[in-house]
Amino acid sequence: xxxxxxxxxxxxxxxxxxxxxxxxxxxxxxxxxxxxxxxxxxxxxxxxxxxxxxxxxxxxxxxxxxxxxxxxxxxxxxxxxxxxxxx
Length: 87
Prior knowledge:
Structural class: mainly alpha
Order of helices and strands: HHHH
Number of strands: 0
Number of helices: 4
Strand content: under 5%
Shape: globular
Oligomer: single chain
Distance between the termini: 17 Å
């Protein structure tokens, strides 16, 4: 279940950020999303946060330490979404 959620989030990321030249296989679930790794920026984080909110109904505060942890990697986002959906 966890891996399929990771795949869904990878697809959502590619779609939300218009990364047409990238496939889900190109994204390592453990790699950092910001700076090194995928190199996303704060605008990308906003877009992705909105896409996650629309798709999964999860909410997160804009600039909290907790949110930064969730956005560390695809795996961290998948864990956050899975936990949020259960509560």
